[in-house]
Design a protein that fits this description.
Helix content: 55-70%
Number of strands: 3
Distance between the termini: 39 Å
Structural class: mainly alpha
Order of helices and strands: HHHHEEEHHHHHHHHHHH
Strand content: under 5%
Shape: globular
Strand order of the largest sheet: 1-2-3
Number of helices: 15
Length: 379
C-alpha cells in the first residue's frame, strides 16, 4: 500500500513536469476535432462526436501510459512492439475485415482495429532502438541501411497488399527522416531518390485502376466533374466559399447538404475551412506548428539518440499526415486516404495520434537522462 502510494505520488510529480503549452495544444486540437465531428453530423452529437470523445478518452489513457513509462522499459519493448505490429498485419492479410474495397482491419468485437496505424509507431520505436545501439561511425555506412530497409519493407509490402498506398508512403517517409536524423550520409539519399524517380513508370503500371484514376483526376479534375473529379472539385468549391471568416458552424452549404464526400474523415479540413474560414484554418495550422516545433526542439536537445530519433519519427509522421491531407483536399496532390490528426473520424488513427504525442512527452520527460549505447549492429 505504501509502495502504491509512493508510486502514485511519483507519477503525479511527473505529470506536473509535463510541458504545459503542449498539453493545452493537444486539448485544443481534441476539442476542435469534436466540434467539427458535431458539425459533420449536422448537429447530432451521437453520430460522430460522442464515439470520437470516447476514443479520445481511451487515447489519453494511452498518452499518459507512454509518457510516464520508464525510458529503459520503452527501449526494451521497441522490437517487441514491432513484432506485434507485424503479426497483426499478417492477421489482417489472412482474416482481416473488408470495408470500402480494402482489407485493413482486425475485428475485436466491439470495434475494428487498423494495425497499419499502430505500425507507424512500432517502426519508429524499432528504428530508434536500432540506430541508438549502432556505432556512430557505423551508422554512416551504407551496409547498416540493410536492416532498416528490411524493417521498412516488411510492413510496407503487407500494407500495400491491403491496398493502402497512403500509409505505406508515410512509413517510407518516417524511415527516410529517421535515417537522415541518425547521420546517414546525404548522397545515399540522392541515390535512393534517383532510383525511385526512375522506377515511377513501373510503379504506375502496378497501381490499381482506382489509383490510376486518382492520378489522372489530379492532373485534370474537370475532365470528369460528375465522376472521378467530383470529390476534389466539391472540396475546392467548399474551401473557396469559406472566405476569411467562414460561413459559421453548421452553415456550410457543401458540407451540410452532403455535396462534400467523406466530410467526417479525409475531407474534414475542407469542412473546417468552409465553416470557420481562413481564420479557422490558420488557428489549426498554428496548433499543429506547436507540436511540430516541440518535436524539432526535442530532436535538438535530448541527450540520448534514442529519444532524438523517436522525436524525429513522430514529427515526420505528424507532418506527413498534415501535409498530405491538406494538399490532397486542395487539389495539390492526388487523393489518397490519409486522415488529418485529431480531426478526422476514426478510432485507430486518433489513438495512434495520441500515442505518438505520448511518445513525444516521454522523450521530453527523459531528455536529460543517459541511455547506454552498446557497440554492434543493434540486435
Amino acid at each position: 500500500m505504501i509502495f502504491s502510494s509512493q508510486k502514485f505520488r511519483r507519477s503525479l510529480r511527473r505529470v506536473q513536469e509535463m510541458n504545459g503549452p503542449v498539453l493545452l495544444t493537444i486539448a485544443a486540437l481534441l476539442l476542435l476535432g469534436l466540434i467539427m465531428q458535431y458539425s459533420a453530423a449536422g448537429g447530432n452529437p451521437r453520430l460522430f462526436a460522442l464515439p470520437q470523445a470516447i476514443r479520445a478518452a481511451l487515447g489519453l489513457m494511452v498518452f499518459f501510459l507512454l509518457a510516464l513509462m520508464p525510458c529503459q522499459k520503452l527501449f526494451r519493448l521497441s522490437y517487441i512492439a514491432y513484432g506485434a505490429g507485424l503479426m497483426l498485419l499478417i492477421i489482417v492479410e489472412a482474416i482481416g475485415v473488408i470495408g470500402m474495397g480494402a482489407q485493413r482491419w482486425v475485428s475485436l468485437g466491439m470495434f475494428n482495429l487498423q494495425p497499419s496505424e499502430l505500425m507507424k509507431l512500432a517502426l519508429i520505436l524499432a528504428l530508434a532502438r536500432y540506430f541508438h545501439t549502432a556505432t556512430l561511425e557505423g551508422a554512416r555506412h551504407l551496409f547498416l541501411l540493410v536492416i532498416p530497409g528490411i524493417l521498412l519493407a516488411l510492413p510496407a509490402l503487407l500494407i500495400l497488399l491491403q491496398p493502402n498506398l497512403g500509409t505505406a508512403t508515410i512509413l517510407a517517409f518516417i524511415a527516410f527522416v529517421m535515417c537522415f536524423a541518425a547521420g546517414i550520409r546525404w548522397y545515399y539519399f540522392a541515390g535512393v531518390i534517383a532510383a525511385a524517380v526512375a522506377a515511377l513508370p513501373i510503379a504506375y503500371s502496378m497501381l490499381h485502376d482506382y489509383q490510376k484514376r486518382r492520378v489522372m483526376t489530379f492532373l485534370d479534375p474537370a475532365s470528369d466533374p460528375l465522376g472521378a473529379g467530383y470529390n476534389i472539385l466539391q472540396s475546392q468549391i467548399a474551401i473557396g466559399s469559406g472566405g476569411f471568416l467562414g460561413k459559421g458552424l453548421l452553415e456550410g452549404s457543401q458540407g451540410q447538404l452532403d455535396f462534400l464526400p467523406e466530410k467526417q474523415t479525409d475531407f474534414i479540413f475542407t469542412m473546417l475551412t468552409e465553416e470557420l474560414g481562413f481564420i479557422g484554418a490558420l488557428v489549426l495550422i498554428l496548433l499543429y506548428a506547436v507540436l511540430l516545433t516541440f518535436s524539432l526542439l526535442l530532436m535538438m536537445n535530448c541527450r540520448h539518440l534514442y529519444g532524438r530519433l523517436v522525436a524525429a519519427g513522430v514529427g515526420a509522421m505528424l507532418f506527413a499526415h498534415i501535409f498530405i491531407n491538406m494538399a490532397m483536399v486542395m487539389g495539390m496532390i492526388p487523393v489518397v486516404g490519409v486522415p488529418l490528426p485529431f480531426l478526422s473520424y476514426g478510432g485507430s488513427f486518433l489513438m495512434t495520434t495520441l500515442a505518438a504525442c505520448g511518445l513525444l512527452m516521454h522523450v521530453y520527460l527523459n531528455r536529460e537522462m543517459q541511455l547506454p549505447r552498446h557497440r554492434g549492429s543493434g540486435f
